Amino acid sequence: MRVGDGKFQYELIHDWGRLPAQWSFGAVSDGAVDSQGRVYLLSRSAHPVMSFDPDGLFLGAWGEGMITKGHGITIGPDDSVYVVDEGDHTVKKFTSAGKLLFTLGTQGRPSDTGYNGKDYRTIKRPGPPFNRPTSLAVAPSGELYVTDGYGNVRVHKFSADGHLLSSWGEIGTGPGQFRIVHTVCVDKRGTLYVADRESDRVQVFDAEGKFLAAWTDMHRPNGMFLGADDCLYLTELYDSPRAERAALPAQISIWTLQGEQLARWGAEDFSVPANFFAPHGLWGDAQGNLYVGELEVSSHRGPRPAAYPAVHKLVRVS
Rg (Cα) of the chain, in Å, rounded? Predict the structure, then answer.
């Protein structure tokens, strides 16, 4: 099935990836592709990190007992694997085979922000790393940026070896303020693009956290991928807290790094394979193909139907 908009056309593989018997994807919160083309899925299942070849052939899994509730996964330039674990308030760096190299944060000890553990609106103050962190990006300099997003309102900058360098972010809707700081990408110049999900925008910062711009023609930006074509690819989650955007469907949108929208598609009827149920993670490969990871439960649709795929692959055709 052909999907897409304008010059961005894809052949949809609606049920990409095959698991061993009796295994389940669970919720696929995120994914990434390494330099060899291997696809890593971050799964909320008994097997947190699963790897596949580009055609969906299962290669292996790891992370059992080490990852509590994975939210974001990033492949470094040396093919090391960073997992952002919102469940135990840490960021972990692994080898591609699953050997733990270091941990940022203290397992099971969230920072004190006043957050009640459920609702971001209960956050009373910014805090240090971490309280349910969400995403990590590796800058060209090797520095690490972590969005600390469900129980905090900060972006933290670390050295490559894990020393905290700076943090920024406040509660609210102004420049440099956040309501669920959900995902971060860094471009070749070191500019940051941060999904401020519940404010329906992407905020743009320089490497030191100086606010540069905000893009607002979107609803609930969720997963983000920065392609080799210097386009930013987004999943936009269903429903927005802003009344004028209420009851909007889940969509994919594509943007220039200057904030110009190039494409957008998606409709409410997720029984049609071209549409999405609860798209959370979005990632891509060097060939321009995209992958979408779906959650198991939608806040307004209930559980994901048993027959509905957890992962989709979109093969670029134009």
Answer: 18
Whole-number Å distance between alpha carbons of 195 and 4:
22
pLDDT digits (tens, 9 = 90+) for 61-109: 999 999 999 999 999 999 999 999 999 999 999 999 999 999 999 999 9
Q: What is the DSSP letter of 200?
A: T
- Tell me which fold the domain 2-316 belongs to: Neuraminidase (2.120.10)
Count of residues in the chain: 318
Cα–Cα distance, 275 to 251 (Å, whole number): 7
Judging by beta carbons within 10 Å of its beta carbon (0-12, 13-18, 19+), is residue 184 exposed, middle or buried? Answer: buried
pLDDT in tens, 179-210: 999 999 999 999 999 999 999 999 999 999 99
Residues of the chain where predicted confidence (pLDDT) is lower than 70: 239-247, 300
Phi-psi bin for 140: left (phi > 0), alpha (psi -120 to 50), beta? alpha
In the beta sheet, which residues pair with residue 85? 70, 90
Q: pLDDT averaged over the chain?
A: 95
For residues 192 and 137, what is the distance between their CA atoms, to the nearest angstrom? 9
Q: What is the pTM (predicted TM-score) of this model?
A: 0.96
- Annotated domain spans of the chain: 2-316
Instruction: Establish how many alpha carbons lie within 13 A of residue 98's alpha carbon, considering only the half-sphere containing its beta carbon.
Output: 15
Mapping DSSP to helix (H, G, I), strand (E, B) and coil, where does residue 197 land? Answer: helix
Contact (Cβ atoms closer than 8 angstroms) between residue 146 and residue 160: no
Q: And the tokens for 108?
A: 């099971």
Q: Which residues does residue 10 pair with via DSSP β-bridges, in sequence order?
A: 3, 316
Helices first, then strands: H and E counts in the chain: 0, 29
Report the pLDDT value the prediction gives residue 76, as an integer from 0 to 100. 97
